[in-house]
Amino acid sequence: MENALVKTPLRKLRRRRTKRVWRLKQKLKLAWKSIKIRVKSHLPGFLSTKKHLFHIKSRKEEQDLSQVARRICKISNDSTKSLAFLLQLPKYSADDFLDRGDLMTPATSPRENISKMWRELHGSNDWENLLDPLHPWLRREVTKYGEFVESVYDSLDFDPLSEFCGSSRYNRNKLFEELGLTKHGYKVTKYIYAMSHVDVPQWFLSSAMRETWSKDSNWMGFVAVSGDRESLRIGRRDIVVAWRGTVTPTEWFMDLRTSKEPFDCEGEHGKNVVKVQSGFFSIYKSKSELTRYNKESASDQTMEEVKRLVNFFKDRGEEVSLTITGHSLGGALALMNAYEAAKDVPALSGNVSVISFGAPRVGNLAFKERLNSLGVKVLRVVNKQDIVPKLPGIVFNKVLNKLNPITSRLNWVYRHVGTQLKLDVFSSPYVKRDSDLGRAHNLEVYLHVLDGFHRKKSGFRVNARRDVASVNKSTDMLLDHLRIPEFWYQVAHKGLILNKQTGRWVKPVRAPEDIPSPLSTGPKPIYSL
């Protein structure tokens, strides 16, 4: 008995030592294999056949490495971080971006029926236990709303030599069809315009032509609603408002003034008055009878359409939600929009959510508290390297301290609202480590990193499926060995077409249905959904 009592601890120590040695050997083996794969994948001079053979072999080795990693992780949780680092092997090479037809892996994952969980995904519990690790259903839903905002950027006419600069290149009836977003099952019902000559920094596009579609307005987004089939999948009729941000570099925020405007005149007075940044307020509320597209403000246009859709579907006995999404400046407009909707549309009580990407602070503490009391749920997706979500605030106001003694007392005025999902651009193995951090504000970069995010302490998802090439649509952040052109997204031949009869390159005439018209701001018939 005494010998047994003495030997038992020794047996345990030997077993523990054996397990540690085995884990160390497996880690070293894993690290060595990963290093060989990385080195071989970057060595130049291979013949195309050898590259093809190695490409297949490396894929099989990656699968074997993943199986070994899972086995180690089951034995020891302490190894998760180091293994996650070792497994950050680039999944793609330049060969993966060659067109192979139907043999290529789809860029999207299957979408499950989320009708039984839609309230949690919409933020009823402030996304508790859904962000770390990130629930796959929530990832797909947030990505969907981000793609709606991206569609506004993708269809915006940027050309200052175009008489339609600042408008959409497509009418609302074919916007999603032209951009490949019909898969989401939504229909655009109204376009939103904002006045472009308000007193803000260079936030808007303007044409250099004398004759333009509008000298006063810019297209800022749209209202859309889920179709019958999509509504069954997501468990309710979902109304979406998508707001774009600015198209100028992020430096425009350095010109942002700290002055504020009262936002809710019916709210409390004195110290508790609700205020928002004056530039955001001007964009959202400005209107003029002398304009073609902004006889009503962006606020009026949006709220009129939201109320119409809510009343229509509520009368049919349907559950209705409102999801407002935006990027950058659009995230600020989304918060003000949500405030008004929650206050003025009682039928939406508890069903108003905001999904923002790289949004700045918008209002004061009273604005935040009032939004919370109205039941608005806000999910802020933020890149760690993006400076815009940090503004305006303490860092911004330090610059103003030397300029204005009054503004120096406003350091704590601006407050963020809601729940934050923080991402890291450099968690992606496809992004250059010496990239311009200003690119971290780009929406496609946000969607790429979001697709690869699993949890804070793990690396980029190996099974992330969103198209990596999209990162370089309007940036230069992808690694050079992937051979994806920088800033590749643009209109073919910069808008010129070849007239085959005359042999001249000319500017095409817009189709009549794609020419902006004040009448096009009206609502789309709902029966077509």
Automatic annotation (TrEMBL):
The keyword Hydrolase applies. One of its GO terms (cellular component) is chloroplast. Pfam families: Lipase_3. Keywords: Chloroplast, Hydrolase, Lipid degradation, Lipid metabolism, Plastid, Transit peptide. GO terms for biological process: lipid catabolic process. One of its GO terms (molecular function) is phospholipase A1 activity. It is found in: Plastid, Chloroplast. Residues 240-395 form the Fungal lipase-type domain. PANTHER family: ALPHA_BETA-HYDROLASES SUPERFAMILY PROTEIN, PHOSPHOLIPASE A1-IBETA2, CHLOROPLASTIC. Belongs to the AB hydrolase superfamily. Lipase family. This is Fungal lipase-type domain-containing protein. It comes from Arabidopsis arenosa (Sand rock-cress).
